[in-house]
Specification:
Elements: E1 11-17, H1 24-34, E2 39-44, H2 51-57, E3 61-64, H3 70-80, E4 85-88, H4 100-109, E5 114-120, H5 129-146, E6 158-161, H6 162-167, H7 177-188, E7 192-198, H8 212-230, H9 232-261, H10 267-307, H11 316-329
Parallel strand pairs: 1-2, 1-4, 2-3, 5-7
Antiparallel strand pairs: 4-6, 5-6
């Protein structure tokens, strides 16, 4: 007789928090109701209010992360916690915990490594007009630089497989961590999915921690760094093209004068133009060499990803596994 063995995947709900006293207790309670079998983790990032106390009273496992910044918190959470499924959200109540089962079900049924809950209507009102404008600009820029896998790279409502979490390097320190996650998935061509979800408003007394200009500059810098690391030929090729165009522009009048008179009266201009052309060639060669290095690093990341367990089988997969074992035993 074959006994069906079902494995319930372990679920970890990750809530990075900074000064979320007005909302965190309600968020924890709603996640406990939506996912009764999940463990709720609240990582307090130096809150100056009673966030940690409210979260612990609501039944969450509370850990303090002293390094300021969401990226630092995410890196710590991914390193500390071992689970089959990881769900990350914010503690401000803008993401509905009731949507969590839908995200997890999509991860399991579509065999994805990351499912992103895109924020429906976020570009119309993201708290401040600067945030909405930044969302549109950065999402468009992402599509041009890294591909069309995502339409909302800044969403903080995501579900991950264990493979994704344990292979994600997490080098960023702040709000740019979501961009790093998206590029990681795009570079390794991991299976991902998106679901459009309603995006709520903050309750009275809760304020956004995102600075339009400061964090926008950090995200733009992260775009540049990630492009340099993942697409060095394209990155350095753009500089090579600019230097070559500038060098030829400076060189043209000097050459015209030389062919007409046989003289070079603007020697400094000629030296500058030659230097720009040489610099352009160096940039091109640098891009070619680093492109090979980047491909090797991508292959190593892929191998690390493949070496990790995909998680426990569920339902039918477990049944098939039990059937196969019984047949071999017979």
């Amino acid at each position: 007789m074959v006994h069906e063995v079902r494995y319930e995947p372990t679920i970890a709900v990750l809530l990075p928090c900074y000064n979320e006293e007005p909302t965190i207790a309600d968020v924890v309670q709603r996640f406990r109701e939506a996912l009764p079998s999940a463990t709720i983790y609240v990582y307090d990032n130096n809150s100056k209010d009673l966030t940690a106390l409210r979260a612990r009273a609501a039944g969450a496992v509370v850990v303090r992360e002293p390094r300021q910044g969401k990226g630092n918190v995410v890196r710590r959470m991914f390193a500390d916690i071992d689970a089959d499924i990881y769900l990350m959200a914010d503690g401000d109540g803008t993401y509905a915990p009731e949507d969590a089962p839908l995200l997890i079900n999509t991860l399991l049924t579509e065999r994805c490594d990351m499912v992103v809950g895109t924020r429906r209507g976020v570009t119309n009102d993201a708290g401040r007009q600067g945030h909405a404008f930044g969302n549109r600009i950065f999402n468009s820029l992402y599509k041009r630089l890294f591909g069309r896998d995502f339409t909302d790279i800044f969403s903080g409502y995501r579900v991950f497989s264990r493979r994704f979490v344990k292979s994600f390097p997490a080098v960023s320190g702040g709000f740019e961590v979501e961009t790093e996650m998206s590029v990681h998935a795009s570079q390794l061509k991991l299976p991902v999915s998106e679901i459009a979800l309603d995006y709520g408003r903050r309750v009275e007394g809760s304020s956004s921690k995102l600075s339009t200009w400061r964090d926008g500059a950090k995200i733009l810098w992260m775009f540049a760094m990630l492009m340099k690391e993942t697409q060095p030929l394209r990155f350095f090729g753009a500089f090579a093209e600019l230097f070559m165009i500038a060098g030829l522009l400076f060189m043209a009048p000097v050459l015209i004068e030389y062919f007409e008179t046989g003289l070079v009266s603007r020697l400094p201009t000629w030296v500058l133009s030659v230097a720009l052309v040489i610099l352009s060639m160096l940039m091109a060669v640098t891009g070619l060499i680093l492109d090979s290095v980047s491909r090797g690093r991508a292959e190593q990341k892929r191998l690390v990803y493949l070496s990790l367990s995909a998680g426990r089988p569920a339902g039918g997969a477990a049944k098939s596994l039990a059937s196969e074992r019984s047949q071999h035993a017979a």
